[in-house]
């Protein structure tokens, strides 16, 4: 598995609000056997996640997701039978919507943690971001003379990256509020100035309806924020049906309209979403959940390739994507990933890494400092 396959998801015509383009993703049938619901954390501020011995991840974490693959909730309703969702509260005037659990802010134990029953709590998007921050986190594996004692003792600790909340992405809040959710919609692709900002997919339309607004609480890269702030309005989708004299019935008009929708879907996959769907990824299995598997993935960190994304996904035994959330890296973040890969491949030997990159050792040192890794080097270097 090295690619993302959005099998079973159909693209609907884009919805445009200023510089934001939303592309709805619709399923003909939900993914059976899996549901996701939200676990909201009270308060706004920094949350801490213990990710390993003496290691922790710190960020703004407004909510988690709970994947439920238990039979009682996973099976489709039959004969009018209904089952209550885990965490549902039945009370008049309750501010908490159904299928949402509100918990006090606390220190999280692990990015993904098994819960009672067939349930797994994980922290959406932060699971992927922590995987990027942990890239070659241990630092030099050999005590080459160029590296500082801190690099050999602590590696890349601490490691930090900047991101923007969805509230600060111009137009995103309004776009999510204004446009209606399609029947059967299970996902959306978000574009800023027609650059792919994020992809979000869920297994069931009911799950998406409740989590649609949570996109403004997600984190977005610097490039997305700049495109939304400085980019102009993008063109709206417009279907143009030429009257060749053969459109004499409503059925013929309906067929022509559907043909336009198919053309838009093909154009979207070939042009707009190509950077996400055509790329190869390194997948890291996080947890197996019955017939489903939770993964996080990293791009190849190829320079001058365009947008590159990290993310997490849940797939079934056939590889079908049931859940997906992505984060677009900035050019600087891609360069840092590329540089770390080159150093690790050369076993952190500067001369060998410089030769592999086709540059000089002095230039490589300059790039290490420009990437923010100057603390790894000895002062004399």
**N-to-C SSE string, H for helix and E for strand:** EEEEEEEHEEEEHHEHEEHEHHHEEEEHHH
Q: Over all CA atoms, what is the radius of gyration?
A: 23 Å
Discrete helix count: 11
Helix content: 25-40%
Give a quick rundown of the structure.
The protein has helices spanning 71-74, 126-133, 149-154, 172-178, 205-211, 222-230, 250-272, 274-277, 331-345, 350-357, 361-370; strands spanning 9-11, 15-17, 20-27, 35-41, 46-52, 55-60, 63-68, 100-103, 108-109, 112-115, 119-122, 164-165, 185-192, 195-201, 219-220, 282-289, 292-298, 309-315, 321-328. With 381 residues, the protein is of the alpha+beta class. Strands 1, 2, 3, 13, 14, 16, 17, 18 and 19 form a nine-stranded antiparallel β-sheet that branches. It has a five-stranded mixed β-sheet with strand order 8-4-7-11-10, covered by helices on one side. A three-stranded mixed β-sheet has the order 6-5-9, with no helix packed on it.
């Amino acid at each position: 598995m090295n690619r993302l396959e959005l099998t079973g998801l159909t693209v609907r015509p884009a919805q445009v609000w200023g510089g934001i383009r939303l592309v709805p993703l619709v399923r003909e049938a939900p993914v059976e056997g899996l549901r996701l619901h939200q676990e909201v954390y009270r308060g706004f501020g920094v949350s801490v996640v213990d990710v390993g011995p003496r290691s922790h991840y710190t960020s703004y974490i407004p909510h988690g997701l709970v994947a439920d693959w238990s039979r009682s909730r996973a099976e489709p309703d039959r004969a009018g039978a209904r089952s209550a969702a885990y965490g549902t509260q039945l009370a008049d005037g309750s501010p908490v919507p159904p299928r949402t659990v509100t918990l006090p802010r606390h220190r999280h134990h692990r990015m993904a943690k098994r819960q009672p029953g067939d349930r797994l709590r994980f922290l959406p998007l932060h699971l992927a971001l922590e995987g990027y921050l942990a890239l070659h986190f241990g630092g030099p594996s050999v005590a080459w003379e160029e590296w500082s004692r801190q690099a050999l003792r602590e590696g890349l600790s601490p490691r930090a990256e900047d991101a923007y909340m969805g509230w600060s992405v111009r137009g995103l809040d309004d776009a999510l509020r204004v446009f209606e959710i399609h029947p059967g919609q299970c996902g959306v692709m978000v574009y800023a100035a027609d650059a792919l900002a994020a992809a979000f997919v869920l297994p069931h339309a009911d799950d998406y309806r409740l989590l649609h607004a949570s996109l403004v609480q997600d984190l977005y890269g610097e490039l997305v924020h700049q495109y939304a702030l400085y980019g102009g309005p993008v063109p709206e989708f417009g279907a143009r049906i030429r009257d060749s004299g053969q459109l004499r019935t409503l059925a013929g008009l309906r067929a022509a309209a559907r043909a336009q929708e198919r053309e838009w879907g093909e154009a979207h996959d070939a042009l707009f979403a190509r950077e996400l769907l055509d790329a190869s990824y390194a997948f890291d299995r996080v947890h197996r959940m019955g017939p489903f598997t939770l993964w996080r993935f990293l791009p190849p960190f190829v320079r001058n390739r365009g947008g590159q994304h990290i993310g997490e996904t849940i797939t079934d035994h056939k590889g079908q994507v049931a859940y997906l959330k992505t984060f677009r890296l900035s050019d600087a973040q891609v360069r840092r990933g590329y540089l770390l890969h080159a150093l690790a491949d050369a076993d952190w030997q500067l001369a060998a890494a410089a030769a592999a990159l086709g540059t000089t050792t002095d230039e490589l040192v300059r790039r290490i400092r420009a990437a923010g890794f100057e603390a790894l080097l000895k002062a004399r270097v």
